[in-house]
Every structure is written in C-alpha cells, then in structure tokens.
Design brief:
TIM Barrel, 8 strands, binds 1,3-dihydroxyacetonephosphate, EC 5.3.1.1, cytoplasm, Triosephosphate_isomerase_AS, TIM_sf
Length: 251
C-alpha cells in the first residue's frame, strides 16, 4: 500500500509573501519529521509556484499546479503548459477540479487530455471527480463517478502517474461531508471502476477524498479502506490545520 498523500489545494488564495511563509512553515515541519507516514503536497496559485518551489527545495515538501493546458505550447493566451509547471519543479497537477469544470466548462475529454499532458512531462495527474447535490439526491452518484472515470482517465494511466480525488461538490467548502460509510462505499466503487479500466494498476492508484476535510474529521476519513489520502481546500491555508490533518493518519 502506497503512503497516503495529503494534498493542499490553495485555489485562488495567497500572495507571494504569505504563500512562501506558509510553504516554509510546512517544509520545516516535514524536514523535522522522522519517517513521515505521508507525502505532503501543496498546490499554490501558478503566480507563486516559482518562489515557493525555490524556498522549499530539498525539504521533501512536494509542489504542484492546480491546472494545466493540454497542449505542449502555442497560442493559448493566459494558459499554462504542463511543461512550464514541470520546469518550476512541480511533481503533481490537479486536473478537472469541479470549480474548473463549472467555471471553465471543462468536460471529461479535456480533463483526460490535461492529465495526459501532465503525465507526459513526468508529473502525477490528480484527476478530480464527484457528483453535485442534485445528482446525489437522485441516487446517481455512483453513475456520475463511473462516467467521469471512464471519460477523464487517460490511456496509459498508472499507479505512478495517476491519483483520483473524489470530491462531492456539495461537500466542498460547506462543512458538510458524506458519512464514513458513504465515503467507504464510493471509494470502493471507484476502485472497482479503476479495475475495469486499468486492471493491472487499479490496486496501486491512490484515491483521495476531498470536501470539507479538517483536523476534526481527518482521522476517521483517512482510516477508511480505499481512502489513500486527502485533497484539502480551506484547511490547507493554515499550517496548523493542514499539518494536523497529516498527523491524523494512524501510524
Ligand atoms: O475543493 C477542495 C479541494 O480541492 C475541497 O475544498 P474544502 O476543503 O475547502 O472543502
């Protein structure tokens, strides 16, 4: 079983000085930890990845992007190529976050192409999936996850280059989460879907839970079968909270 991955998605928050200070704080805590039970990743806004990556180099703290374009370069004003993120030292890229699917109309095929672009540059694609509240209420959450995995998983996905993040949209930033039993059920379903699409890799692909993860619920969520880590939004903006979430992993 791979080590758990605790990933922080800073979204559109923090300027250079405060972001660098937060990253340094986390890097210091990680550097002082003997044999950590987790991989720790932060995904700052693209504007401050460069100073942060330089500030934490060698500490073990991983740095990632929140999105990338699917093309290697070209006439795409305002976009960022996977190679540009890799060039700054990023090891991971979040793709297909529900906020990008909603705000920018990203569909599964685009997410798969972005994931493949990140992987082609040697980075790990964190592919986000998850149902809306209406879909959940209609009992369609499993079908939605199945469809998103089928459409968003690129060919050539492996345990090394792919992470799935299950983020029910209604749980993001709301303080609400599914019950432990519901999370366990959904993650088992996702594992089964991976076994259909990438049989040889399915067991090793990490499946993160995201949506209102905080220090008070992290221990329970991270102890569940098939929960291989967390994708944390709001609570990743405070070093104490983000660190407490990582510390909640049972040794
Ligand atoms: O969207 C998320 C992480 O990608 C979750 O955000 P919150 O942890 O703020 O609910």
């Amino acid at each position: 079983m791979a080590r758990k991955l605790i990933a922080g998605n800073w979204k559109m928050n923090l300027l250079r000085d405060e972001g660098t200070a937060l990253a340094r704080d986390l890097a210091l805590r990680l550097a002082r930890t003997v044999d950590p039970a987790f991989d720790l990743l932060i995904c700052p806004p693209a504007t401050i990845i460069a100073p942060i990556a330089a500030a934490v180099a060698g500490s073990g703290l991983l740095v990632g992007g929140q999105d990338c374009h699917s093309a290697p370069s070209g006439a795409h004003t305002g976009d960022i190529a996977a190679r540009m993120l890799a060039d700054l030292g990023c090891s991971h890229v979040i793709v297909g976050h529900s906020e990008r699917r909603q705000d920018h109309g990203e569909i599964d095929l685009m997410v798969a192409e972005k994931a493949r672009a990140a992987q082609a540059e040697g980075m790990v694609a964190i592919i986000c999936i998850g149902e809306t509240e209406a879909e959940r209420n209609a009992g369609r959450a499993p079908q939605i996850c199945s469809r998103q995995i089928a459409g968003s998983l690129p060919r050539g996905a492996t345990a090394e280059n792919t992470v799935i993040a299950y983020e029910p949209i209604w749980a993001i930033g709301t303080g609400r989460t599914p019950t432990a039993a519901e999370v366990a059920d959904t993650h088992a379903h996702i594992r089964a879907m991976l076994a259909v699409h990438v049989p040889a890799e399915a067991a090793g692909i990490r499946i993160l839970y995201g949506g209102s993860v905080k220090p008070s619920n992290a221990a329970e969520l991270l102890s569940l079968a098939n929960v291989d880590g967390a994708l944390v939004g709001g609570a990743s903006l405070k070093a104490d909270d983000f660190w407490a979430i990582a510390q909640a992993i049972a040794k």
